[in-house]
Structure formats: structure tokens, C-alpha cells
Amino acid sequence: MATLVGTQLSGRYRLDEKIGAGGMSTVYRALDMTLERDVAVKLMHREIAADSDHLERFRREARAVAQLSHPYIVQVIDAGEDEGRPYIVFEYVQGETLKERIRRLGRLPVAEAVAYAVEIAQALGYAHQRHIVHRDVKPQNVLIDAEGSAKVTDFGIARTLDQEGLTADGRVLGTTDYVSPEQALGHKVTGQSDLYSLGIVLFEMLTGEVPFKGENQVAVAMKHVRDTLPDVQRLRPEVSFALAAVLERATAKDLERRYADDLELIADLEDALAIETARAGGATGETTAVLRTLPERAQRRLPLRLRLRHPGWLALGLLLALAATVVLIVALSQRAERGTGTQHAAAPKGLDAISLKQNGASDFDPLGIPQSENPAQADFAIDRNPTTTWNTESYGAGAQLPKAGVGIYVDADPGVAAKSMQVNTPEPGFTAEVFASDRQPSRGATDPPEKEGIFTLVAAPRAITERTVKIPLNTAGHPYRYYLLWITRLPPSGQAKVAEIYLFR
Which positions are catalytic? Predict the structure, then answer.
């Protein structure tokens, strides 16, 4: 194929340099002699073009990608055939692939990795809205242009979701380093499969390595089906709990636990980007560009100086900050109870998140001396800041508690028949059950909740094995005011941690 350099396609596109190759095609930098601009030409191999199935697949790519016009997707310009060789013409993106960037830099800055994930997710979301699934999301298929933006390319095995396509059932397509469990098993592939692959790409950006390795492609694919993703916070301790939770949900093997669509993932990535930027104390490069596009919900998580987009706004920003301080003082003096809000609450289908009472979380340790479990931290479990946690006392390494349990309860004033509780934790591995009560638990209690008399068990003991877990509740329709998370077994570290508690009805 190297001999094709210097030749012309259809009398218009002069092939100047080979810049990539795959099993079906070769990619060239070419000159569009009509418009006098550089383009990228993907030229199908002649021997592959002789296969009708491969030829139709190549043509389908051109039709599919030609539908897509998005700032984070490489644009299709033209398509045609020359002497029996089909080709597709794309915009030429000067830069490097995301894979090359990872190889060059190793682990990317945390906020930069999230910024790229936001852009890729937006590109995939745009395609999914048009019923096109990529099926081969990997850093090799993401280009970083001269301005630093990510552009998704190579929908080479893409197909529309409303047609059967040419891929035989059971055939695995895609690179197994990033393949979703359902794709590895030859099951139906949807937009959720792309989101899983994006989660693996995010893991690689954060750690510099893919999560699974094996002797061959099949071994790696089966690890995506069976093995737990390595803990990103152990490999990269500066990663926040919020971002780790996003990664965990994006790569959930169970489709019911994985993000249902791009909008959910993008919203959580935007919040995580704001949190990571605030933790880093500033932003550079593409992170700055993406920060400008964040919705107000996520912008509020940024320090004021990072929200301002023009130096001339500084005086206005200071005035706004002063006004906000005055409002806060007045609110506190009046002890206003506005509720906790529902940020980061992904409600189960058909349910709504409940805004709990502010300052309405309390520790519960009737069997302790003293009868307390870090009470000053209790409100961290409902502050809607995923980086803060309520922790039990440390009981030393090992999962065994020296007593029946310890807990934390939340106030759902005036009462609600909750149907589900979401528990966010930076350290899974503990066991808990849920009780409900109409009366506030007393610090003078000396019995565990099952014997206290005011509690009703609404969720049996359950292992908290992931950072975000939803626990179904059975209140029999009764609107309880207080809901107690009762921890009966600790993680191996000997200390349970709860970042957020949500209720849904």
C-alpha cells in the first residue's frame, strides 16, 4: 500500500502520507486539490473490498458517520470509490491520539482526564441520540487536536441501533482491552456498552494502564466479564471518592447498575470535574475550556475565582460573594431548614429523591462507652459533598465489631414512606441493615435497634460491596420520619465510612 503515496483518488484527493493502518483499511493524509486543504482519507484494502460483507460494512460506516456533525466527532467530508477501492474522506486533525498522549505522559492530570471523558461522552451521546453505537471506544480512536480538544473517530464497526446489521450473533467486535462484558459474550450491544468502554478509557487516563491484562485477547475479554475493576483510589490516591464512584458505575458489569444513558454519566462527570478542579486549586489546558461549558449546578462547586470568565467580572464577583455571605448569615440566624438537596442522587426508575432535613443526621451507638460514633461528622453523610464522610470509630484491622453494631440515622421530617436508600461509601466491604422509626432515637438507649422498641426493620442485612449501593426498603406504606443505617460488620480496615445517604420515594 505504500506505493499509493503520490497517487490521486477520483482525480481530486492526492495521497501524501500514510498515517495509520488497520485490518480493513489504510489511512492517509491527503490533499484535496479542489479546495486546497489537507484531509484524511481512509482507503479500503483491495482484497477486503472483494468481500461483499466487508464492502457493505465499510459503506455503512460512511453512511453512519456522515449523519454526525458534532465538535467532538471527526467530520466526514466525502466518500467514493476509485478503481474498485472504496474510500471515506474525513477532516484532517493535526495532533496525536489519546493513546499516544497517555504513552507520552503516563497518567494524565486528574482534572484533564475527566475533561476528556466529558467531551468523549458528549460525542457518544450525540451519536446515541441518532441511534448509532460506536462499538469500539478506545484511546486509539480519540484524537487530540491542536487546541487540545478530544475528537472521536473511527466508527469502523458502528451500526445503527434500529437495524440488525451484518455482525453475526456471538461475534465479538472491538478491542478487548476496552470491551464491555456483554460485547465480550456476544450479547446485544447498546449505548451502555460504549459507556462501559469510556469508563475503561477513563481508568487508563487516570492510572496510565488498562485494568486487565492476559495471555491473549480472549483472556482479557473474560476478565471484563468476571473480574472486579482494580480500585482506582489505591492506584491514584488523589482521585476523589466522587470520581471513583462515577468510574465504578460506568464500568458496572450489571446493566441495571451501569449508567442508563449518556446524560446521567455526563452530569456526574461534570460534577466530578468541578470537584477535582477545586481540589487541585486551579485548571489548565483543556480542563479550562470544558469548565467554561459546565452548567450552573456544577459551576457552584468551583471556587469563585474559577467561575469568573473575564477579569472585569472580579468586582461583580466580590459583590456577589459579599451578598451571599449576608444571605447565609441571615439564613443561619433564622435557622432556616431548606433541605439537603438531591445532588448526585440517581433515583431508581419510577422513584424521586427526597430532600432531607438539614443538620438532620445523627450517630447512634447505644452499646458504646461513651455512646457516640464521631457525632461531629454525622452531617457529612447528608451534606451532598461526596468528598466528606462520617466514619465509625476505628476498631482495628478486621471486620468483626466488638458489639452488635453502630449506626447513623437521618431525619425525613415530617415523614415519608421511603422505598429505597442509597449509600455512598469510599470503602465498600461492610454489612448493614436499615430500620425506621416515628420517634427520634435516644442517646440513653441501651439496646440494639431490633430490641429498642421504637424501630421497625425495613431492610434486611446487606453487604455493601460497591461505592454506591441502593437498598430497597419495605415500609408497608408507613411515613416514617427517621431512617437508621445500622452497621453490623466492618470492612477489613476496621472502620466503616459513609459519604452520602439518600432516600427515595
Answer: 136
